[in-house]
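Notes, Module 5: Reading structure tokens.

Key idea: the token line is not a picture. It is a compressed description, and you learn to read it the same way you learned to read a sequence, by spotting repeated patterns. We will look at two proteins. The first is printed below with its tokens.
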Amino acid sequence: MSSYDFLAGCYDRLTYDVDYSAWADYIEKHFAKAPLPGRTVLDLACGTGSLTRELALRGYEMIGADQSPEMLAEAAEKNRGAAPIEPIFLCQSMEKLDLYGTIDACVCCLDSVNYVTDPKKLARAFQRVHLFLMPGGLFLFDVNTPEKLAGLDGQVFLDETEDAYCVWRAEFSRRICTYFMDIFRLDPSTGQWDRGEELHRERAYTVEELTTLLEGAGFVDVQTWGERKLRPPRPGEQRIFFTARKDT
């Protein structure tokens, strides 16, 4: 079992309830808090490029990076002809990020940071983002909290649409939440259902750990925020946002 090889073909159908417009609204609120050096934005771990497209349509010059070729294929097709500037996509892992030039902001959304389960790789990923950011540039990402991931232990979930079906169960041990997925996808050309299995893992990082990694990478003004709120996190919130800047 591997991550996203099979899921990519039905990811958007199974995540139809994610409001990417609201995510983009929240990102732009942070962009407005202190002017960015420019409008080139990296969508790190961009997946199928839904958020990439939303920001591109708002006038940002977008770069999408993801380590899954299957997800990037979906992203490229989805963003074909997106105005005013069509995004470009790179097949790269976070810790090996290698851009052609600088960026003015980097966003990494939908708990993608949790998927980097090796803290040393995450440290390198933060260093790579810092390297390519312009002075004054913003890095924004969100994480699932340790409390949320621990609370998933032993639970079974079902996501279903007319042409996709996913049953997944979660196990939490030693700060790693493992998702075992059985996915069924309707092939419209044959009318038959294809079955795939995937394994996903997320690491539970504390605020203190992530702050230390960001500061170690050279970031300043590290702040935490509630779930899509412009206020500090409150006890019990299941998702926390981070912002950090590259010093001017």
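Here is the second protein, with the sequence above and the tokens below, as before.
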Amino acid sequence: MCRINEEMCNEGRMEGEKGKSIEIANGLITRGIMSFEDISELTKLSLEEVQALANKSK
């Protein structure tokens, strides 16, 4: 049971980190100050994820 709780906490933390990365990527995309490749490298999101975020913000 403890291992299940630990796994759930780790998943929640990962989702939180990804959410923060998406928030940062959206800000950088909006400002247009970095290439998608640089944003991908900085946020650890895939290039495809960054491009999808950019397409959503249009």
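Summary for the second protein:
- The mean pLDDT is 84.
- The two ends are 45 Å apart (CA to CA).
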